[in-house]
Amino acid sequence: MLKNLIFLIIIIFSWYSISTTHALSEKTEKTEKTETIEHLTIYVPGAENGGYDYTANALNDVLLQSGLVKKIDIVHLVGVGGVLALTHFIHNVFTEEYAILLGGRSMMGAALYNNSSVSILQTTPLACLIGKPLAIAVEKNSPIENINDLLEGISTDTLMIKWIGGSAGAVDNVFLKDLFVEMGLDVEELNYHPVPGGGQAVAKQLISGNYTAAISTLDEFSQAISDKEIRIIALTSKEVIEGLDIPTLTSVGINIAMNDWHGVFISTKTSESKKHILSELFENLSKNSMWQKIIKDSHWQNKYIDDDKFLDFLNSEQALLSSKFTAKKTDSVAKNSFDKQTKNLLRNPYRWASYIAIVCVILLIMILIIKAKNKNREEKLQHNLKKIEEENRQNKEKLAEKVNGLSKHIEHEFAKWGLTPTEKEIALMLLKGLTFKEIAEVRSKSERTVRQQAGAIYAKSSLSNRSDLAAYFLEDLMAP
């Protein structure tokens, strides 16, 4: 009996060993048969050195070095927080055999913020890959020493804190709005300046000194951190990240945390067989030791979710972000009324500077009014001057006409009297008032000769003397 029992146990054990070996062999064979993709195109919705670009380059390194893909092309499509890339991907007819789009919370938010006609839900979600914490940074020489200084500044004078970050509607913008709500501040007073395209542009704008603080993913600040041009004063993750001596907002009493996430999407036109191959590719990637090391070294979070669960996650994200960008009611617009602005001005610690600015504006308006009046007066004077000049011109023309007429009249009378050329010349000199002596000197004659010639002129004209000669011609110029 005992021998039979032992024999039965041996048989069962042998059968189990054979079955396990066969299963392992089958699994190994299936893994070995996983298809290596010859060529993969990754569409990146942003600029080089941006958050999506860091993810794309990490994928490129791991997939190539692991032999999962032989060749990878990375295509950057910049604009409107990734909406242009999403639009292109949805409507494009792909010539590539395998093409994927990187997307995330920022892309979803930008599409909703801009009321775009396209949505990330118009693609086929393949897998969520990673989560990325946001970082709040200040310029290296900023008087803001830590996150508490910045929060105090926001509470004291909201509008004076100038923020720089990613595209409007992106996760940077959404987080700051949530922060204002958590702090009990008016979201409409958020002084936020978006930088389309992302990349290192946010850090460069902060370094320029025109902004108080910046917000973006931690990896987008990596170059500026290495160059020691900025300081990271807080992270938006829920817990402090291992290896980074940087506080989170939750650690300083602000109960808010938010990370960006990046996932992989394919076109709805992709065949089921290719979808299956790509799904296996990113499932294998999630287990890859090299990929896990990059996630750890980059301070990312492993957020791998496969296609079915990823779709559910996307629907919940879409609903959450839609609620944040829902149009506000009319009564919320009333917050921007003049009364509220006046109230904010009065509680502002820099209100005296504001008063002085208002006085300066009033003085400037008065100066402009006085200047306008002086200009009108100057224009009137110019008009009167031109009028007087025109009248003088016309008088001169009339006088010239009379003088010209008198000359012709004199010449006519001289001819009528029968004066010789010499007598005409002497008669003109007499009319001009020259004495006999002066006429004699001009003509190089004796005064006696000039007197004789003058006598001949008087005789021919039937005039008695010089006075009668002058009166004869001046009478025509006298008013009647």
Automatic annotation (TrEMBL):
The chain crosses the membrane at residues 352-370. Residues 412-477 form the HTH luxR-type domain. Residues 371-405 form a coiled coil. Signal peptide: none annotated. Keywords: Coiled coil, Membrane, Transmembrane, Transmembrane helix. The keyword Transmembrane helix applies. It comes from the Bacteria. The keyword Acetylation does not apply. Belongs to the UPF0065 (bug) family. PANTHER family: TRICARBOXYLATE-BINDING PROTEIN, UPF0065 PROTEIN YFLP. This is LuxR family transcriptional regulator.
